[in-house]
Design goal:
The complex is a heterodimer of chains A (608) and B (316). Chain A has 608 residues and is of the alpha+beta class. Chain A contains eight helices and 25 strands. In chain A, strands 4, 5, 8, 9, 10, 11, 12, 13 and 14 form a nine-stranded mixed beta sheet that branches. Chain B has helices at 22-44, 87-93, 210-218, 262-293, 305-315, and strands spanning 13-16, 53-57, 60-74, 80-84, 101-107, 117-124, 131-145, 150-180, 189-190, 222-227, 232-235, 243-250, 254-258, 300-303. In chain B, strands 3, 4, 5, 6, 7, 8, 9, 10, 11 and 12 form a ten-stranded mixed beta sheet that branches. In chain B, helix 1 (22-44) runs antiparallel to helix 4. The longest helix of chain B has 32 residues, at 262-293. Classes of the chains: A alpha+beta (608), B alpha+beta (316).
């Protein structure tokens, strides 16, 4: 019977969860009268061959079941061991003063620190692992490890065994780190860490695409970067120091807000045109090394007139609203010519004034100056690209199809919105009727709807040449029928224009090209009494609709697949498995084989 | 030369008894215990009848090009601007009508014939004294599912966003998700929600009231919602710049729950029943064999006649 109990003990040993182990420092209440036993109970963690079950004196006559092996410890005989056991006292933080609850602090001069302190800080006594079970389960212990009985805070007596935890005895060796293996250790053990953003670079011999362009202010002998302010962040405010990238033709827009425009009108460099050209541009980055040599520097030439801001009464005049840099480059020979042009505007001085500035940088190859005769940028080559402007032709003049746009107060704006290929759009505005005769009014309104000049043809492909009439298709146009009028004094005016564009992909399925098949202008009209002489507003609408008329092939495009005759996904698992193999020859055999195997299995089951 | 057993077959043996004998009663009992308990086990362990199931499908979504926009202005009270693609609504707005520039493009990324996302941009021109503090926007979609039942509905994406600081742009990038309060049918055509979200033909203001539109929409059991937890509100609008709403709405693959049909339900029940039945069959086969072999119930054992005869003939 005894043997079976011990078996039980060993089983229990394994079953005790981690959480049941009491902290060595917070020894249960039952063990308080024999505090010194915590330390020596784990002499170097070596298992003690003799049994050491111990009954705390607080619970006399404890039922450990083996009164013969009870060895009540004498408090005095091992206390001297406490200090030598812990040569490193981690909680002794104030030299010369006793640290509270630090049981290894020699400044306390306490023989039995537990009698004074409520508990010992972790680390001040040697840690040891106790595994506990309810004491009533234990009849006799023959464990080779030291054991004792504790009283846990709930008043339940726990039989605990001190196990030998080999992990605690691992000793860390000192590593030698010197200049040679420092970096190796960092790369071996280190992960990502904070890095300093400061970088030093030697100037490369020529600009690469995307490199910032260097500028030089000879007045202050300062090297800087060519700036293209851009709106960044939630505020959309101008980030003045945003650099322009070499060969990256871009346009940016950002907003400036002024607390006190009267003051900043003349002082803010962002509003002053001069601050955009009072420097020279370094032809090549290596020009940095010889700044006095004008051979490496290109002056910024002024193309348009640029006056400096002027505060006249309540307006700030000549404020820069648009800056356009034209930069000519010549491969690795760098920048050859830089020109700048401005658009200027006047601002009213009032609290909370703001201005939106546009910055455009255009790069082009050197000596490609005959740009005027060249057509504008293509909208695709040859097929239209989505989002590019739709090209229109009037006579021999190529321009872009536009929609009307409204300005802040809802009236029609002179600015027009470019129609983007593939993007359906709608816009509207309020048109103020003027006191003019009917035909003049009609002419005005048609012009507002379709823009000036009136598009006659639309480009079939994005690279259409105005000289080649075959590359354009005539726009079908349907004006309002005048016969609809009932009264003679009525004036039929157009109020909406719908531009319908039919387009399709042609060419190879792998590289389809979008082309415009035909476009149609459709006007809708209203009749008005001519006699109404009061000025009133009519709302105009323009709509553009793109209709894809591509005849798409059957859905499974690409490689021909196996023809699975059964409906839906009857062979789904096989399909998935063999479509990955991509070998159609194997695919046809293997599922049948698998099916045969399955059938065989079923048949053999039947015969048994 | 060693001999191997190349082939074997079991020999049949019959046990005869009267129909009202103990053996017949035992057999009846055993059969009942074999076939009925598996049914009870399968049923009582839940999930015997497949009442709901799921499937995956990318819906066919098309933007209807219907827009209803209300822009709340500040800081003075009661200021708002509105616009929609419905002429009746626009007529009702009077001075609050401001026509924006709207552009929309649907994109089929993988060329599978189903649209994958919508790029929507709205530029509302504003005067320098008008400051946008909030936006309410409704976009309508036609939403179709085809794989199980053909489900057609007209749904909407409602977007509301506001901020304490006057905005210049609202950026939304989210999914148009399906929300089901009840499962769809497994077959057939379901057009109960194929009604327009906004009654564009009505001249009455009540039909364009947002509370009314949303209340009617939420009555539906199947709806779509625009999921973008945090629309990005950009501030700092220059005096002459318009207020811009920039939305990217994706049409993701949805997991749709449906009511399985009769045969699907029977199929899954059958699988469960038979897998439990096999165990019972095996156990009761053993029990029956034991009972009859050991004559626990009285029977007259007979060797199967046709096989025995055949065997004898062959030998002679």
């Amino acid at each position: 019977m005894c043997a079976s109990r011990l078996m039980l003990l060993q089983v229990l040993f394994l079953m005790v969860p981690e959480g049941a182990r009491p902290q060595p420092s917070s020894s249960p209440a039952g063990a308080v009268p024999t505090p010194s036993d915590v330390g020596p109970g784990s002499q170097g963690g070596t298992p003690q061959p003799t049994e050491e079950t111990e009954t705390p004196r607080a619970v006399p006559g404890s039922s450990t079941g083996s009164p013969t092996v009870v060895t009540p410890s004498a408090p005095g005989n091992r206390t001297a061991d406490l200090f030598p056991v812990l040569p490193i006292c981690v909680c002794d933080l104030t030299p010369g003063t006793c640290d509270i609850n630090c049981c290894c602090d020699k400044d306390c001069y306490l023989l039995h620190p537990r009698t004074v302190f409520s508990f010992c800080l972790p680390g001040s006594v040697r840690s040891s692992s106790w595994v506990c079970v309810d004491n009533s389960l234990i009849f006799r212990s023959n464990s080779p490890f030291p054991s004792r009985v504790f009283m846990d805070p709930n008043g339940i007596r726990q039989f605990c065994v001190h196990v030998n935890n080999s992990k605690l005895n691992y000793f860390q060796e000192l590593q030698k780190v010197n200049a040679s293996n420092f970096q190796a250790l960092v790369t071996e053990f280190g992960g990502k860490s904070f890095t300093s953003t400061f970088q030093t670079q030697s100037p490369s011999s020529f600009y690469r695409a995307g490199d910032p362009i260097l500028t030089y202010f000879s007045k202050w002998s300062v090297i800087s970067l060519l700036r293209q302010p851009a709106g960044v962040g939630a505020g959309g405010l101008c980030v003045e120091n945003n650099p322009a990238g070499f060969l990256e033709s871009k346009s940016t827009t950002c907003a400036h807000f002024f607390k006190d425009l009267a003051n900043s009108c003349t002082s803010d460099p962002a509003l002053n045109a001069a601050s955009y050209y009072n420097f020279t541009v370094l032809k090549l980055p290596r020009g940095m090394t010889d700044l006095q040599n004008m051979k490496f520097q290109v002056p910024v030439t002024l193309v348009s007139k640029a006056d400096s801001p002027l505060l006249a009464g309540n307006t700030c005049q000549n404020v820069v609203s648009q800056v356009v840099y034209e930069i000519e480059t010549n491969g690795t020979f760098g920048i050859q010519k830089v020109s700048v042009s401005f658009e200027q505007t006047n601002l009213t001085v009032e609290p909370g004034t703001s201005i939106q500035q546009h910055f455009i940088i255009r790069f082009r190859a050197f000596r490609q100056s005959a740009t005027a005769s060249l057509p504008g940028p293509r909208s695709g080559n040859p097929g239209y690209l989505v989002g590019k402007p739709l090209l229109a032709l009037t006579g021999d003049f190529s321009h872009k199809m536009t929609l009307l746009q409204s300005q802040g107060d809802g009236t029609c704006s002179d600015k027009r919105h470019e129609v983007q290929f593939g993007v359906n759009a709608m816009s509207g505005c309020k048109f103020r009727l003027k006191n003019v005769d009917c035909s003049r009014l009609q002419q005005d309104m048609y012009q507002t709807l379709h823009g000036r000049p009136r598009p006659e043809h639309v480009a079939i492909f994005g690279n259409a040449n105005p000289a080649q009439k075959g590359e354009w298709t005539r726009i079908l146009s349907r004006n309002c029928s005048v016969s609809a009028t009932h009264c003679t004094s009525c004036c039929v005016i157009p109020v909406s224009l719908e531009i319908q564009v039919l387009w399709a992909y042609i060419g190879l399925q792998s590289n389809p090209q979008a082309h415009v098949s035909r476009a149609r202008f459709q006007y809708q009209c209203q009749s008005r009494q001519d006699s109404q002489q009061v000025t009133e507003e009519v709302s105009l609408t323009t709509i553009v609709t793109f209709v894809d008329i591509t005849q798409k092939p059957e859905p499974p495009r690409g490689q021909p697949r196996l023809d699975w005759k059964l409906p839906f996904d009857f062979f789904f698992p096989f399909k998935v498995a063999f479509s990955k193999g991509a070998d159609s020859q194997k695919g046809s055999v293997a599922p049948i084989l698998a099916l045969c195997l399955l059938l065989l299995g079923v048949l053999s089951l039947e015969t048994e | 030369m060693a001999l191997y057993e190349l082939f074997s077959h079991p020999a049949e043996r019959g046990y005869r008894a009267g129909l009202c004998s103990k053996a017949a009663l035992f057999l009846l009992l055993a059969t009942a215990l074999t076939y009925i308990p598996p049914l009870l086990v399968a049923f009582r362990s839940h999930g015997f009848w497949l009442k709901r199931s799921n499937y995956e499908e990318q819906p066919t979504v098309r933007f209807q090009h219907q827009v209803l926009l209300v822009v709340l202005l500040g800081p003075e009270r009661g200021g708002f601007l509105a616009w929609s693609t419905f002429p009746a609504f626009n007529r009702l707005q009077g001075d609050h009508l401001r026509v924006p520039l709207v552009s929309a493009r649907e994109e089929d990324r993988n060329q599978d014939g189903k649209m994958d996302m919508l790029h929507f941009k709205l530029e509302l021109p504003l005067q320098s004294t008008e400051h946008v503090l909030g936006v309410q926007l409704i976009l309508t979609f036609s939403y179709q599912l085809h794989r199980m039942s053909t489900f057609v509905m007209q749904s909407m994406a409602f977007l509301q966003s506001s901020f304490a600081i006057p905005g210049s742009q609202l950026y939304v990038n989210g999914d148009l998700r399906l929300q089901q309060k009840q499962p769809l049918s497994y077959s057939g055509l379901d057009v109960q929600y194929n009604v327009s979200v906004i009654n564009g033909t009505s001249p009455f203001a009540r039909d364009y009231d947002l509370t009314h539109i949303i209340a009617a929409y939420q009555e539906r059991n199947v709806t779509t919602i625009l999921t973008d937890a945090n629309p990005l509100w950009l501030v700092g609008r220059a005096a002459e710049a318009p207020f811009v709403i920039n939305a990217v709405i994706r049409y993701p693959v949805e997991v749709i729950s449906y009511l399985p049909g009769f045969w699907e339900m029977i199929k899954f029940a059958w699988i469960q029943y038979v897998s439990i039945l096999l165990i019972f069959l095996w156990v009761f086969e053993r029990i029956k064999r034991f009972v009859f072999q050991n004559q626990v119930v009285t029977t007259i054992p007979v060797t199967a006649v046709p096989q025995g005869e055949l065997y004898k003939e062959h030998v002679s």
